[in-house]
Write a structure and sequence with these properties.
single chain; alpha+beta; three-stranded antiparallel beta sheet; four-stranded antiparallel beta sheet; 156 residues
Length: 156
């Protein structure tokens, strides 16, 4: 595991960049890549097909294989060349006030679509929670989410 300032670093990459046999996280599931197109989720005992450009998260740079970028596209940046330190991935989830002032948990990778008015069907993970209940949910399932919006509400 890569360590920066004592904290684990997660790195987002495409499914095609993960080495066969390595594990990665996708949509909250731990998956083992079994071929160039499939991954196995042991918790449900099933195989799934993944798009080559599906965004996944690995916990070690050793799980990423060197792959050329598609023609016309820059290669993904995984390191800060000046410091030779992995660039931490953005948070996977974020909090947003929903209807009636309650909290919704959404996936960060669909945020730009949501902000543009095109809500993606997989964007919404939890809906209509009060602050304490949302905090409990996030802590119970260890969602990678910034809790500071809830802290502001707790202090009021």
């Amino acid at each position: 595991m890569d360590i920066t300032k004592g904290k684990p670093v997660k790195v987002h990459c495409n499914f095609s960049q993960v080495k066969v046999g390595s594990s990665f996280e996708c949509n909250g599931n731990i998956v083992v890549k079994r071929s160039t197109r499939t991954g196995f989720i042991e918790s449900v005992g099933r195989w799934f097909y993944y798009a080559q450009r599906e965004t996944v998260t690995v916990e070690s740079l050793e799980d990423i294989q060197a792959a050329p970028a598609p023609l016309g596209e820059p290669a993904p940046i995984l390191f800060n060349p000046a410091a030779s330190v992995p660039i931490p991935a953005p948070r996977e989830y974020y909090l947003k006030r929903g209807k009636f002032g309650l909290w919704d948990l959404r996936q960060t990778r669909y945020k730009s679509q949501f902000d543009a008015g095109n809500e993606h069907s997989h964007d919404l993970c939890a809906v209509g929670f009060q602050a304490k209940a949302m905090r409990d949910l996030i802590n119970m399932y260890k969602f990678d989410c910034d809790l500071s919006p809830l802290d502001k509400e707790d202090s009021e």
